[in-house]
Amino acid sequence: MDFFSLLKQEHQEAKDLFEEILDTEPIDRAKTELLCEKLKLHMEMEETFFYPEIEDLKKTKEMTQEGELEHDEAKKYMKALLKSDLDDIEYKVKLEMLKLSVVHHVDEEESDLFPEAKKVLSKTQIDRITDEMKAYKSKKSGAKQPAMA
Question: What is the mean pLDDT of residues 67-92?
Answer without folding.
Answer: 91
